[in-house]
Amino acid sequence: MSQAYIHCPNTGKDVYVGLNLEWSQLDSLELPPQEIVCPRCGGSHRFSKDDVTLRADGAGD
Ligand SMILES: [Zn+2]
Question: Which residues contact 60 (CB under 8 A, 6 or more apart)?
């Protein structure tokens, strides 16, 4: 399982969005636009499937 991240536009950091997916699931995923409160900058960010990148468990910051 991989964790889904988006890129915070204010800090340039990756932000975990609370989803765990496989790459194979991402292709077929129906994900409506989402909004999260960003733990990096405290702002709210809207994102859709196209903004999500996946990382394997334990990787990165
Ligand atoms: Zn942010």
Answer: 14
pLDDT digits (tens, 9 = 90+) for 9-55: 999 999 999 999 888 888 888 889 999 999 999 999 999 999 999 99
Q: How far is the CA of 59 from the centre of ligand 1 (A)?
A: 20
Which residues are near ligand 1, the ion (C-beta closer than 5 Å)?
8, 10, 38, 40-41
Rounded to the nearest angstrom, the distance between the alpha carbon of 46 and the centre of ligand 1 is 10
H or E, element range at 26: helix 23-28
